[in-house]
Amino acid sequence: MRLIAITSERGMNTPCSIVVFNGKHHDEKMAKVFSKHYSNYNISWEKRTNKWGGVLVAVHRSIPVQKVEVFQHIKNVIVLDIGTAEDKFQLATWYSSPKENLPVKLFDNILKRNSNTILMGDFNAEHSSWSNSIDNHKAHVLYNWLTTKTLEIVNKFVPTSTRSNATIDLILAPSHMIATTSFSVLPSIGSDHFPIIWTPTIKLHKRDQRYPIMEINGMNGN
User: Fold this and answer.
1) CA 23 to each of CA 3, 178, 211: distance values in angstroms, whole numbers, following the listed order
2) Membrane-spanning regions, if any (predicted)?
């Protein structure tokens, strides 16, 4: 499985606050299994468009979270409001198949609703600006889109695929969230994608303490 974890500055000895499973078959049965094993988390999931897709997000119960209604029931996509009114941000994740067009119009709508947004997922987009691999069409679309935004790619030039030097699992965030952040790529846990650990500059108050955020993407060949 592909895994991206967003950790707090308190380190990896604290529980992960958000776990995102991207590119794995998800349905109601699977969600119940995750709920059983992640009893301290609220689970959201969305269906896939092909055999590789599907997304699931587990948010620690100490953190206020709400699924954004306008983006509900879009396959391979989950958009969440996280935090309280004074520090709320959006977290959006998706799986984008190599054969599907990159949904930049959807990205625009997500950012229009709240520019304080973290975008992450399997883009299947390889570009020389962030990946040590040959550019593909999806990457050119993403690159051109990024030139019009204030988002930055967190995890550049570190392979996330076990089969090549490509960086196709990406974390995009506003500059103020990544000014003092760090990330690392972990050894494979049996997937064809490497886990990524990220510590962003996010300050959550009250009961939503600063825990890690983790994204895990499904085991597949894309």
Assistant:
1) 10, 25, 24
2) none
Q: 166: closest CA among 201, 135, 204?
A: 135
Spatial contact of 182 and 204, defined as CB atoms under 8 Å apart: no
**What pLDDT is recorded for position 12?**
39
Closest C-alpha to 44, from 94, 86, 85, 78? 78
Tokens linked to 180: 């003092």
Which pTM was predicted?
0.83
3-class state of residue 51 by DSSP: coil
DSSP reduced 3-state for 100: coil
Residue 110 burial (C-beta neighbours within 10 Å; 0-12, 13-18, 19+): buried
- pLDDT score for 127: 95
Per residue in 37-66, is it b (16+ CB within 10 Å) or e — as a string? ebeebbbbbbbbeeebbbbbbbbbeebbbe
Instruction: Please report, as a single letter, which amino acid is at residue 218.
Output: G
Check residues 18 and 126 and name the one with the higher pLDDT.
126
Which pLDDT tens digit goes with each residue over 103-161?
999 999 999 999 999 999 889 999 999 999 999 999 999 999 999 999 999 988 887 77
Q: Which domains can be identified in the chain, with CATH numbers?
A: 2-217 (3.60.10.10)
Residues whose CB is less than 8 angstroms from the CB of residue 103 and which lie 6 or more positions away in sequence, other chains included? 77, 94, 96
